[in-house]
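Ticket #4471: structure export looks truncated?
Reporter: QA, pipeline team
Priority: medium

Steps to reproduce: submit the single chain below to the structure queue and open the exported record.
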Amino acid sequence: MNKIVGKEYLSEKVVKFEIEAPLIAKSRKAGHFVIVRIGEKGERIPYTIVSSDPQKGTITLVVQNVGKSSGKFCELNVGDYVTDLVGPLGKATHIDNFGTVLCAGGGVGIAPILPIVEAMKKAGNQVIAILAARTKELIILENEIRQFADEVHIMTDDGSYGKKGLITEGVEEIIQSKKVDLCVTAGPTIMMKFVSELTKKYNIPTIASLNPIMVDGTGMCGACRVTVGGKIKFVCIDGPEFDAHQVNFDELIMRLHAYD
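Actual output as written to the record:
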């Protein structure tokens, strides 16, 4: 069991937890995730490791309250324990000095963008971040991202913060104003699809951090399968990041609707 040592509400239904996990804190890299179980009969839920503190032996997760299991997680407080926590899982983000890296995160997809922004900046890249959500209250981790990104642009659907419009409008505006060497995107699947279609038009290599339903996290159940470049991949062991221009987003969206 892993003790919760910090809890902060980022919005009404999004909570940031700091959890004791010393071995994971030492070994995790950008792109890695964990699978959490709340209660002996709880379901297994994947969460990106947003950050870690190897000295304190803690990792940080961002949880959105969208159902029964995530709701139980959000009810926990400092001093409570997570029943099971396994990781780090998945493949780490490929970090290199690409030049100018554009990181586009939507909603809670901003959480997996944060460690990538940090790692890309430390590798010597110029990092531009675009954070998008329906409204101002749903923009999360802005201050943390500003610590590492050279530029931060905000897009909201209702215009309550930053510029009014969709994330693709912000992405295209940046692409047209400067040379972008790599784009990384995370967020709702439909958002990643349209960001990918846009960057493909401009021949900009793009990585998408996918977020399908997972069960075991070890590649055995097949629940998280996705078609990439015409081949079946498993997000839990082959991802979560893939060449966005090779991902069959329409199939992925259809499979996600099967769980509605």
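Status: closed, not a bug. The export was complete when the record was re-opened. Leaving a note from the reviewer for reference: DSSP finds eight helices and 17 strands in the chain.
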